[in-house]
Design a protein that fits this description.
Number of strands: 5
Oligomer: single chain
Distance between the termini: 22 Å
Strand order of the largest sheet: 1-2-3-4-5
Largest sheet: 5 strands, parallel
Order of helices and strands: HEHEHEHHEHE
Strand content: 15-25%
Structural class: alpha/beta
Radius of gyration: 15 Å
Number of helices: 6
Shape: globular
């Protein structure tokens, strides 16, 4: 987790959401930003020519596991890193599991385990927490 923290504070970041377009990613990379993909938005990286560039800018994926499984698996596998043969850090996943999609996050956990993907868990509680 500390490496992720270092990577997140080392440069500006752009968060990709559901409506992300390839031009958004290109602009972020040209501005020197790292990329955080929210769930299935990571799929936009597959739409960009020279895809190893945006994939290598990806700092982490934040997911509740209801994004496109194929795109999440590509991120877990280190898609472009393997394609270009470079040794790069694995992309960590920040998983926020909740009760309405247990099948999805169970399947995603299997994929993350398969690729030995770093995993950070969040949680929710009905209790009020001071702070």
């Amino acid at each position: 987790m500390f490496r992720l923290q270092e990577r997140l504070i080392s440069r500006p970041v752009t968060v990709l959401g559901a409506a992300a377009e390839p031009d958004d990613v290109r602009a972020a990379i040209q501005d020197g930003h790292g990329i955080i993909a929210a769930d299935g938005a990571v799929g936009v990286l597959t739409e960009i020519e020279f895809s190893e560039i945006p994939w290598n800018a990806l700092l982490c994926v934040v997911s509740d596991a209801d994004g496109e499984p194929e795109h999440l698996a590509m991120a877990a596998a280190g898609f472009a890193r393997n394609a270009v043969g470079r040794k790069c850090p694995k992309i960590p996943f920040v998983l926020h599991a909740h009760g309405d999609n247990t099948d999805n996050w169970t399947a995603l956990l299997d994929v993350l385990h398969l690729y030995d993907t770093p995993l950070i868990l969040t949680h929710q509680t009905p209790d009020h927490i001071q702070g």
